[in-house]
Amino acid sequence: MAKKRTSKDKKIQSQIALNRINRLFLLAENKALSGNFSIANRYVSIARKLSMKYLVPIPKEFKHRFCKHCYYFLLPYFNSRFRVHRGKLVIYCNNCKKYTRIPLK
């Protein structure tokens, strides 16, 4: 008979998943700065899968670090453009050529 998971187990698992997501985004940034965008993109996909599996939201500081359309890791001045236009932050991905607009407060 399978052992039931308690809410304490789920909290521990979600905390571990959140720590791993943070670590993966930091590793992705380091790899992208060194020029390995394929490894950085792989780290982003692993972080997204962890987020979906354990129902943990990606932290706000990392949400705008990847493209919402192609899930490509975005590094300003290297493979993306960040502009402010009419009270919105416009992020342009050079990989899929799409925009993301985020309202500024």
List the helices and strands and how they pair.
Blueprint: H1 7-34, H2 37-53, H3 60-63, E1 80-85, E2 88-93, E3 99-103
Antiparallel strand pairs: 1-2, 2-3
CATH superfamily: Immunoglobulin FC, subunit C
Taking the alpha carbons of the first and last residues, their distance comes to: 53 Å
For the biggest β-sheet, the strand order reads 1-2-3
Mean pLDDT: 94
Estimated helix fraction:
40-55%
- Counting DSSP E segments of at least 2 residues, the number of strands comes to 3
Low-confidence stretches: none
**CATH topology grouping:** Single alpha-helices involved in coiled-coils or other helix-helix interfaces
The radius of gyration computed from the alpha-carbon positions, rounded to a whole number of angstroms, is 16 Å
The appropriate CATH architecture is Up-down Bundle
- The number of helical runs is 3
Shape category: elongated
By secondary-structure content and strand pairing, the structural class works out as: alpha+beta
Q: Mind describing the biggest β-sheet?
A: 3 strands, antiparallel
For the record, the CATH class is Mainly Alpha
Task: Tell me the count of domains.
Answer: 1
List keywords for this structure.
single chain; about 100 residues; alpha+beta; Single alpha-helices involved in coiled-coils or other helix-helix interfaces; three-stranded antiparallel sheet; 3 helices; 3 strands
Describe the protein in words.
47% of the residues lie in helices and 16% in strands. The protein is built from three helices and three strands. The mean pLDDT is 94. Strands 1-2-3 form a three-stranded antiparallel beta sheet, with no helix packed on it. It has helices at residues 7-34, 37-53, 60-63, and strands spanning 80-85, 88-93, 99-103. It is of the alpha+beta class.
